Structure formats: structure tokens, C-alpha cells
Amino acid sequence: MSSVAVEAERHENGEPPALEENPSNQNIPEVVEPEDDDAEEQEMLKYGAKHVMMLIVPVSLCMILVIFTIRIITMYDQVSQPQVYLVYTPFNEQTKKTTGSPISDAVLNMLIVLGLVIVMTCVLVLLYKYRCYKIIEGWLFLSSLILLFMFTGLNLHEIVMRFNFAMDYITISLVVWNFGVMGIISVHWKGPLILQQGYLLIISAMMALVFIKYLPEWTLWFILGGIAVYDLFAVLCPKGPLRILVETAEERNEQIFPSLIYSSTVMWTVTMAEGEPVSSYNPLNSSSSSSAQGSPPTRPLPEMEQEPEEQGVKLGLGDFIFYSVLVGKAATADDWNTVMACFVAILIGLCLTLLILAIVKKALPALPISIFVGIIFYVCTRWCIKPMCDQMAISQVYV
User: In terms of C-beta density within 10 A (0-12 exposed, 13-18 middle, 19 or more buried), how is residue 118 classed?
Assistant: First the structure.
């Protein structure tokens, strides 16, 4: 039967015409299965949620560590303890260099501290831009050394005195020495990832405790607001120092120093091989098996020793520090409602920041949203909700 007769019969029976066969299949468009797009979208959502939790958990742990330390160590009680402030805040009641108004003193101290932060950040960027890595490493090494040894010893001494533990100075010295040396090795050389991340959280918590202890109260609140505004400029401005630092690291395909950045995945990798020496090994050309002097061939690095590809979300240690400062300052007020309000506010702000990060897909400042939301929650809870709850309790009104 001819093709014309077949088509006429199909037309009489009300059937659609048959498609012409195309052996080459050149003009048939490929149909993309919608399930593939759905699976990819679900995978992206799962990946994003996973790394969001990888940041929320350490931020929460750092804030809890600061709250716990403030509650058990009386050294951070500014009411019962004599105050000694940092030299960067000369305008206070202790030095008697005051303008007569705590707000004016706080603004002047805040400008001095912010100026110091800007200068030190610019110095760090210049050192990194001109590849003065040894100076930066020495600078960060000295900072970690002071925090992990001196302030660990002070806190441990206060804990021993607080709970009346029987511990001599030799034992305290050995504990501090082992703790500090392990931290220096993990942060500045190599070590298990979880150990490195744990020490970074401890360093951030100790720095937050230093600010809480040695900064005047009004000055601390103004510094929190000022540093959040500066973070916007430093990261988003085309000539901002932190943006220049990030762009320079991306151009060089380098990692920023791990003692400055917390990463949700791999932070620092060290390549090494066991067995024969690897002096002639060329990482750009693994086929080279011997040196120019005719030395015996070297083994290529095993797969597990290759530097893994770094993924995930990064958060500067400064963000951990100022998150903990806000929550820790709320903890000194001896009101758990205020502490929990600030705690939740910071996590909400961090989630909003990560949501915006997923949309714009570029480096964003992590301080502004969390800090401003936390300050608003602190003011509302401390000065509005707490007095109302106290008055309701006195009047025996229960909701």
C-alpha cells in the first residue's frame, strides 16, 4: 500500500498523520527531562543548607563559650571588679580624661579604635599585596601566642580560684603549655580540621572576652555599631581594604591565612609524601620522575595526599568575635531573656546574610545585619520587655 493511501486512511479514521522517519536524527531536538532539573535544584538546596548549618553551629558554640565563661568567672563582672581599660580608649572615668558625657566619651573612643582598625587592616593588605608573608605569619603567630598562653593561664587561674580546685602552679603551667603548643601547631602548621576549627573558636572567644573586660560599656556599644558600618565599606566598596584582600587572593589563586578565616570545609592543606625524597617532584607535571642529577625516581604523591578542592562558606574570625561580644555583653546584664534574644537575633541575621549571599554570589559583610538586629533586640528586651515582665510578676499577672 502506498504512503498516500495510508495517509488517506488515517484521515478518514480521524487519526493524526504519521511523522516522517528521519534516520539521521539531526533535526529532532533533545528533550530535557524535568526530573534532572529538579534533582539538581534539590542538590543545590541540600548543599546550601548543609553549609549554612556548618556556620550556624560554630557561631553558636563560640557565643555559648563566651556566655559560659562570663557566668562562671567573676573577673568579667564589671560591677564587683575594679576596671582597667585599654590604652586605645583614653576617655573614661578611670583616667579622668572625660568630656563630661558618657556618650561623647564613647564616640571619641570609638573613633580612635576604628582608626586603629582601619590602619592595621590597610597595613595587612599592603603586606599581603607585596607578598610579605613572613611578616604576616609572625604577626598572627604572636597574636595567637598571647591569647593561647597568657589569657588561657589567666582564665584557668580564675576557674581554679572560683571552684577551689587543688592545683599547683607547676600543673597549671603544664596544662597551659600543652594547650597552647597544640593550638599553635593546629592553627599555624597542620592538624585535624576539627581541632583547627576548635582552636579558632577558642581564640575568637578569648578575644571577645578581652573586649568585654577592657572596654568601657558605652564605648563597646558604639564600637559594635561603628565596626558594622565599617564592615560595609571595607567589603562592598571597590577600594575597600577587605575587598582588595579577597580579590588579590582570588587573582593569585591563594588561600587567605587560616588564622584569619573560618571555613566550613578544608582550610589548610600540607602536601607531603612518605618514602623517597620528593625534591624533584613537579606538581605541575607529575610525569617527571627523576631530577637533573640522575637521582632515583620519586614516587608520585598518593591521591589522599593531594590538596583537596576547597568548597564551602567562609566567615572571618572578626565576625565570630563581635557576635560573641554582643551576646557576652548581654550576659553581663544578668538577664537570660536578653541573652537569648541577642543569641537568636544574631543567628537570624547570619541566616539572612547567607540567603543574600546565595542570591548575589559574591563576598558580603557578615556583621551589619546581625549586629544591628542584635542591638535592636537587646534594647527592646532589656528596656521594654524585661521591665514589663518584672512588673507583671510583681502584680502576679500571668499570660
Answer: middle
